[in-house]
Design goal:
The structure is a single chain. The protein is an alpha/beta fold. It has a single domain, classed as Aldolase class I (TIM Barrel, Alpha-Beta Barrel), CATH 3.20.20. The strands form three sheets. Strands 3-4-5-8-9-10-11-12 form an eight-stranded parallel beta barrel, surrounded by seven helices. α2 packs across α4, α4 packs parallel to α7 and α8 packs across α10. The chain is globular, with a radius of gyration of 19 Å. The relative contact order is 0.15. It binds flavin mononucleotide. Flavin mononucleotide binds next to β4, α12 and α14.
Length: 374
């Protein structure tokens, strides 16, 4: 009998790489790594379980490209060459499961704590994030240049470790997003002011990454399609920015939303509808005339919603975050007609983001040991 969710299991070309299905595991900081950001057995076990569960592409959590950009104490790092070996071991294990793997390049900017970075926070402008409440230093032109280069070096390490893709974390109010947004960028030099000036830092990061990995290496860019804060970016802004990304050689756009002040839009509570960014993804897809695949995340909890989004042509791939935390075998269960057996994420946000914001290791109320598969 034909599988009614077959559309989820068609392969797709993203840049020069083929992904076996359209189910992406969204990046989620685990806090499972060493205090220097090194890959651990625990992280490997957790991600291998999701690869065995049938994910087409795993986007490994945000990896800090510079110690000053570390958001959480045990987040994964990609800021020095000594970390490449551990990253390579992880990549090899995921490849053995037939799953493609990306790493997300990240700098926390003002959305962090100097107790974790070990240095003052840096940002486009001296404006504290209303949630983290720590005053960042305004970045000098030299710091801007150094940080752009740090993204490039992170990309070079990712390629050397064998990752299939790199995702640039341009979303959720972190450093790259901070430059793009008038909500957090009040600079009066060439990196602030007009939309064109605010795109300069993100696009220079893209160019720095591209220079290191070569023209054929597939790059994904994660974007907050709207910020949901007064004076923040709207979908109209991000539609034109998405076009610039494609013109600058980005191979896929991963659509999310929100910044820390609107955190309920980044990680949605239980009472929000499923697929909250579907319409934004669809608008971005139309704005770029579907020239590259669009991935969409945001409270997608069951295969019916995922199928509907693809059937309606609103996005090209579906990213699942907490659904994968609650059940590593989500794709396999859907593929084998056992979708009713999926342990469904309840959106309580206690074990996952609740713990992460206390700087503890990732867990899940309905799957408390996601790193210890049966
Ligand atoms: C614990 C946790 C950690 C997260 N870490 C990241 C991250 O490292 N990078 C990122 O872009 N998004 C991160 N997110 C957001 C998810 O990728 C995803 O966009 C969000 O959870 C909504 O999707 P979902 O409803 O499928 O979980 C995180 C979410 C959670 C719950």
């Amino acid at each position: 009998m034909e599988n009614k969710f077959e559309v989820l299991f068609r392969s797709i070309k993203v840049g020069s790489s083929e992904v076996k299905n359209k189910i992406v595991m969204a990046p989620m900081v685990t806090n499972y790594c060493g205090s220097d950001g090194v890959v651990t057995e625990r992280l490997k076990d957790y991600l291998v379980a999701r690869a065995k569960g049938g994910a087409g592409l795993i986007i490994v959590e945000a990896a800090y490209v510079h110690p000053g950009g570390r958001g959480f104490s045990n987040q994964i790092g990609i800021y020095k060459d000594e970390l490449i070996e551990g990253l390579r071991d992880l990549v090899d294990l995921i490849h053995q499961c037939g799953t493609k793997i990306a790493i997300q390049l990240f700098h926390c900017g003002r959305q962090g704590h100097s107790s974790v970075t070990g240095a003052p926070l840096i940002a486009p402008s001296p404006l504290p994030c209303p949630i983290c409440r720590e005053m960042p230093l305004e970045m000098t032109l030299k710091e801007i240049e150094d940080t752009i280069e740090a993204f490039g070096r992170g990309a070079r390490r990712a390629k050397e470790a064998g990752f299939d893709f790199i995702e640039i974390h341009g979303a959720h109010g972190y450093l790259i997003n901070e430059f793009l947004s008038p909500y957090s960028n009040r600079r009066s030099d060439e990196y602030g002011g007009s939309l064109e000036n605010r795109t300069k830092f993100p696009l220079e990061v893209v160019q720095s990454v591209r220079k290191e990995v070569g023209k054929d290496f597939p790059l994904i860019y994660r974007i907050s399609s709207a910020e949901f804060v007064p004076g923040g970016l709207t979908i109209e802004d991000t539609k034109s920015f998405a076009l610039l990304l494609v013109e600058n050689g980005i191979d896929a756009i991963d659509v999310s939303g929100g910044v820390y002040e609107s955190h309920e839009m980044i990680i949605q509570p239980a009472d929000m509808p499923q697929g909250i960014f579907t319409d934004n993804a669809s608008s971005i897809r139309a704005a770029i005339r579907a020239r590259v695949p669009v991935i969409v995340a945001g409270n997608i909890k069951d295969p019916y919603k995922a199928k509907e989004i693809l059937d309606e042509g609103k996005a090209d791939m579906i990213a699942l975050g907490r659904a994968f935390l609650a059940d590593a075998d989500f794709p396999i269960k859907v593929m084998t007609g056992k979708e009713k057996e999926i342990c469904v994420c309840q959106g309580c946000n206690k074990g996952c983001i609740g713990r992460l914001f206390e700087d503890k290791a990732l867990s899940c109320v309905i799957n408390p040991t996601p790193d210890k598969p049966e």
